[in-house]
Amino acid sequence: MKIGIFTALFHDRPIEAALDYIAEAGIQSVELGGGAYPGSRHLDDLGGAKTLATDAGKRKQLVKAIESRGLILSAISVHGNPLHPNKKIADEHHEAFTDAVLLAEALHGDGIMPQATVNGFSGCPGDSARAKNPNWVTCAWPDEFRDILDYQWKVAARYWRAQNRFLKQHNCVFAIEMHPGFICYNNETLLRLRKVAGDRIGANFDPSHLWWQGIDPLAAVREIGEAGALFHCHAKDTRIDPQNSGRNGNLDTQSYGDIANRSWVFRSVGYGHDEAWWKDFVSVLRTVGYDYVLSIEHEDGLMSSAEGLHKALDVLKRSVIAEKPGPMFWAKD
């Protein structure tokens, strides 16, 4: 298993400088933003995803930049909302998705990407065809909420069935980050979408979005892994504030910057849950056959980017099982 990083953390520096820092830190893999909400800062340095997908010369520059530093590319991330009721936003995010799929296919063929993987969100429609903004339903009553959900799942199933065919044509998988605000936010909703859309749809498993929902990430990742739907993993922590949570619960709309008053906040690895938890997480990943990348995503408002990265890296280096297990000494085969 390799330790990686989502390079959106280094949006303030060009790709070569970002890769230098990453390699010097002892990180082994990178995840690049390809558009939508994370932007595409580093791919844009070489012309953008659309150009790179078709321009072998430009792509060779990207491959060399990554490969020469001993790194691999784990995924291209286009976290967006292609189901947005605003057609302009939906079209932009859909285009980012399709460009990323074509680029992932090409980079897999170039040998820098072990599996053609695109990360993102499931998206969330509005409450009807007349809606202007997404509408995330979190309650089954009054009855009109269920009517909204029925409409949204019809929209999502139609869209993602078509995208599953597109992914299959290009030998790529789409790893959905289960995230509140979108129709896939837990195991039930992710596996439901996979069932109705197809097996090119799976998970980019990020425990940080699950803790505050009351989900046990160890149980959740085991189910996802056993379903054959675990394509990629993020490493990000969450701390629940016992006082604020005790008063207000965890459905929190306070600004992410208002740390003192929030019920929960994102933390660097090891600052929400201890090292023992992360070792258990890695062991469960290995148990279900996951041996790809744990990609650090830094969103800790109490630490600088550099401090948060190195603190997370310190914990993960002691937690990750780097080598594949060999046969037991008593095994006959």
Automatic annotation (TrEMBL):
Domain of life: Bacteria
InterPro entries in the record: IolE/XylAMocC-like, Xyl_isomerase-like_sf, Xyl_isomerase-like_TIM-brl
MF GO annotations: isomerase activity
Alphabetically ordered keywords of this record: Isomerase
Pfam families: AP_endonuc_2
Residues annotated as transmembrane: none
Annotated Xylose isomerase-like TIM barrel domain residues: 19-318
Gene3D superfamilies tied to this protein: Divalent-metal-dependent TIM barrel enzymes
Descriptive protein name: Sugar phosphate isomerase/epimerase
Species per Swiss-Prot/TrEMBL record: Armatimonas rosea
